[in-house]
Write a structure and sequence with these properties.
Chain lengths: 126, 524
């Protein structure tokens, strides 16, 4: 499985193919949110800057913005989430992916936390 | 001599086997199961004998109804019982303590209702000639005078119909002032604390502003340093609630007001929690430019299912010219309604048909006049005292979210006291229902993990508060016992319905009743 990188906002990002990356939320994030009931995905072709709002996830507890971990253009969105938002809970880093970006600056990926750094970050949250 | 008159002399000892979960009838005691009204109807049954409609030629053409309308057909006693039984399943402020934080579920005095039903207020029409509704206009003017006096603000827009509607009114006034200064293209950012009511960022976004969140500091207040860093020539306003949604007074509010004004922006205050400070603090003295007042919270008019909200907005001198139409003035010939802009006024338009929530105006003024200025001050004081009593008596068994001192009108707990028990805030709240209490607000504000926001209001007696506190203490202590999670996660046990599937309700809501498909008949 290709390497996952993480943001402090609990998004994960993974290389799919060259400069195309898949993005979703972490197992920790879905656990905090509780049952996801709705996901608003970006339109294909939308340009997002690193840290810019790209999607919205809504659970029984709260609605939260999902930010782009790297800058790029949206090339795919996981339409399966419209009918089955629970995939975000059951398989957050697999079938529960949100969208795919064609990155403009692949170096941004390397700046993100790796698994060990993210685990330490989550542990520090108590 | 036997005085039992046939009654059993002693009640048999209760045990699990004597209290079966299921009954033959489906009812539990005198709590009756109630089907939907559509499921009870029998075609042709009727409650009122009305003459048949005269035959009339239909002009609906292709829009003519092709199938029966499907209204339920019931007798009058069936209808009366149906709605009575439904009402018995309801829980409201008239049933008991309703500690729903941020909502201010205070008692709605019956005097308010009596006044609102006076024919001179209840039976008038907004299109009547103003000469015939002088008393009603005087009431609006008098209520406006009270609101201006209590807040220290020079103007008030009375027409907004709810808190969020009031926010929109105040923010449109700010937007109008920015446009008038020719800064519409540059002042586009609105600062909103992370703990704000969700309506604040929604209002700013609706007007086309960019919402920029300000973090809270460790004390649960606006992080002043972070706020200062975000100031700039593109900032239109800050939207700040005080006391804030953590139930805490924003101690730096004067400094925040001065800084936003120095940066050329405006200060919108969300007045949802004004009930904590009414009669003690004048928002004008805090540097507020606009603030809505929830009459349905602070001034005891009903809300929830009980009636419409009402959210008048007080405005500073800078914003007063933009106040929406219509408004009441006192002229040479008595009270009049200003329906079009005159003089220096530059109203931004209208927010609502007619003049606002007249019935709520009557109730709010009845509350003010029956309490007096000293009574309003005491209500705020008691609301804060009650919340602090709860905080103080639960501090050792629950976990205050910010334990740096007294709170205002709400006691806020996080879920640290449930850590490692396997019990969530939701489970704890459900267990409260079995104990006869409507849960507090949960998971809000979002800045606190597993938040439980308790707002007792001034309506509760010490006995009522003690009974509530004792119940929460019992549950908090039970929660720490080994194996408690199973019990909490199964709550509520004693309600007409057990725990509802909130996830499925959100993912696949059934919004309309449809008659069952008659498969048996189809097979015949």
């Amino acid at each position: 499985m290709p390497e996952l990188r993480f943001t402090k906002d609990h998004e994960w990002i993974r290389v799919e193919d060259g400069d195309v990356y898949a993005i979703g939320i972490t197992a920790f994030a879905q656990g905090q949110l509780g049952d996801v009931v709705f996901v608003e995905l970006p339109e294909i072709g939308k340009k997002v800057a690193k840290g810019g709002q790209a999607a919205v996830v809504e659970s029984v507890k709260a609605a939260s913005d999902i930010y782009a971990p790297v800058s790029g253009t949206v090339v795919a969105a996981n339409d399966a989430l419209a009918g089955e938002p629970g995939l975000v809970n059951s398989d957050p880093t697999g079938a529960g992916w949100f969208f795919k970006l064609k990155a403009t600056e692949t170096a941004e990926f390397q700046d993100l936390m790796d698994q060990a750094a993210y685990d330490a970050f989550v542990a520090s949250l108590g | 001599m036997d005085k039992s008159q046939g009654r059993l002399a002693a009640v048999p000892a209760a045990s699990e086997t004597l209290a079966p979960a299921a009954t033959h009838s489906g009812h539990r005691g005198l709590m009756l199961e109630e089907p939907l009204i559509f499921e009870q109807g029998v075609p042709g049954r009727i409650g009122v004998d009305v003459p048949a409609a005269p035959a009339a030629k239909s002009r609906l053409g292709s829009f003519k109804r092709k199938a029966p309308i499907g209204l339920p057909c019931l007798s009058e006693p069936q209808v009366v019982r149906h709605f009575t039984r439904l009402s018995q399943k309801n829980y409201g402020i008239d049933s008991g303590l309703f500690a729903l934080g941020s909502c201010t579920m205070k008692h709605n005095p019956r005097l308010n209702e009596k006044m609102a039903r006076l024919p001179g207020f209840a039976d008038i029409h907004p299109l009547q000639p103003v000469q015939t509704v002088q008393g009603a206009l005087e009431l609006i003017d008098e209520l406006a005078r009270w609101l201006k006096t209590l807040t220290g603000m020079p103007a008030v827009a009375m027409s907004p119909a709810a808190g969020a509607h009031g926010e929109l009114c105040g923010m449109v006034a700010i937007w109008s002032a920015i446009q008038a200064k020719g800064e519409g293209a540059t002042r586009t950012r609105v600062l909103v604390p992370e703990s704000a009511h969700g309506t604040n960022p929604a209002t700013a976004a609706l007007l086309g502003f960019t919402v920029d969140p300000i973090p809270a500091d460790a004390r649960g207040r606006v992080d002043l340093a972070a706020f200062e860093k975000k100031l700039g020539p593109d900032v239109a306003a800050i939207m700040l609630t005080n006391p804030n949604t953590c139930g805490l007074f924003e101690n730096d509010i004067r400094k925040i007001a001065d800084l936003i004004h120095a940066a050329g922006g405006y200060f919108y205050c969300d007045g949802a929690n004004y009930n904590a400070i009414a009669g003690r603090v004048r928002p004008a003295d805090l540097g507020v430019d606009a603030m809505h007042i929830n009459l349905h919270k602070t001034f005891s008019t009903p809300h929830g299912g009980g009636g419409p909200g009402s959210g008048p907005v007080v405005l500073s001198a800078l914003l007063a010219p933009y106040a929406p139409l219509p408004y009441v003035v006192h002229g040479a010939n008595g009270f009049a309604l200003v329906e079009t802009a005159t003089g220096a006024a530059k109203p931004f338009g209208r927010l609502k048909a007619f003049n606002g929530q007249m019935g709520m105006f009557v109730r709010a003024l009845a509350y003010m006049l029956s309490h007096g200025a000293d009574g309003i001050r005491q209500a705020s004081t008691d609301a804060v005292l009650n919340a602090n009593y709860i905080l103080a008596r639960l501090r050792d068994v629950m976990s205050p979210a910010f334990d740096g001192g007294p709170c205002m009108h709400e006691a806020l707990f996080d879920d640290t006291f449930l850590k490692d028990t396997g019990i969530s805030t939701l489970d704890f709240a459900k267990a409260m229902i079995d104990e006869g209490y409507h849960p507090m607000t949960m998971y809000f504000p979002l800045v606190v993990h597993g938040a439980m926001l308790v707002e007792p209001t001034e309506s509760e007696s010490k006995e009522s508060l003690d009974a509530f506190i004792d119940t929460l203490r019992y549950l908090a202590i039970e929660a720490r016992k080994p194996g408690a999670a199973v019990w909490f996660q199964a709550a509520p046990r004693l309600t007409p319905r057990r725990r509802l599937d909130e996830t499925r309700a959100a993912r696949a809501p059934v919004l309309r009743w449809k008659p069952p498909v008659k498969t048996a008949q189809a097979a015949e």
